Amino acid sequence: MKKRVLLWLVALALIVPAGVWAQGSANLSGTWKLDKVDPPLPTGRGGRGGGGGGNAYEENVFSPAPTSLVITQTPTEVTVQTGSTKAVYKLDNSLTVVPAGDINALKTWAHWDGSKLHLHQKQGMSFSRDILSVSGGALTVQKDLESGGGSTTRMLTYGKATS
């Protein structure tokens, strides 16, 4: 009886990680162009501005609605390029710090929640979380930003760019 229970526990230990790996099966790779922002960005000075790291008018990981995203994906990590900024996310929820040892470094981490990919980033006093999902050829990003005491949440819809 004990051998049977032990055998089942070993089998379960081998099966569960395979199921967790299968959760992250969505392919997000490609160049994506912004189609829709809800709620809309304010118009006028600073309407496209960022919320933290870098120049307020430069698109980066803290921009409220980047006009394009370039995503590359492997089984172990995702790289997202926003403007001139590239952020690397390890899919095991471990922390990536660039440049290492810098107090103002960009810190990133990621994990799958079913078919949705959660990307987290922190730099200085700015924090954001993006939840990415693909459906019907559209990339949807729920972008939660916190910076300087304020916070916003936007739903961004991207379409795949054609060459």
Describe the structure concisely.
The protein is mostly beta strands and 163 residues long.
Key features of this structure:
1 helix; single chain; Lipocalin; 10 strands; 163 residues
What can you tell me about this protein's structure?
This protein has 163 residues and is mainly β. It has one helix at residues 2-23, and strands at residues 30-38, 68-73, 77-82, 85-90, 96-98, 106-113, 116-123, 126-135, 138-147, 150-160. It has one domain (26-160): Beta Barrel (Lipocalin). A ten-stranded antiparallel sheet has the order 4-3-2-1-10-9-8-7-6-5, with no helix packed on it. A hairpin with a 2-residue loop joins β8 (126-135) and β9 (138-147). The protein is globular and about 40 Å long.
- The CATH H-level superfamily is Calycin beta-barrel core domain
> In the CATH hierarchy, what is the architecture at level 2?
Beta Barrel
User: Structural class of the helix and strand makeup?
Assistant: mainly beta
Number of DSSP E strands: 10
Give the H and E element order: HEEEEEEEEEE
Main sheet strand line-up: 4-3-2-1-10-9-8-7-6-5
What is the tally of helical segments? 1
How many discrete structural domains? 1
Strand residue content: over 45%
List the helices and strands and how they pair.
Blueprint lengths: L1 H22 L6 E9 L29 E6 L3 E6 L2 E6 L5 E3 L7 E8 L2 E8 L2 E10 L2 E10 L2 E11 L3
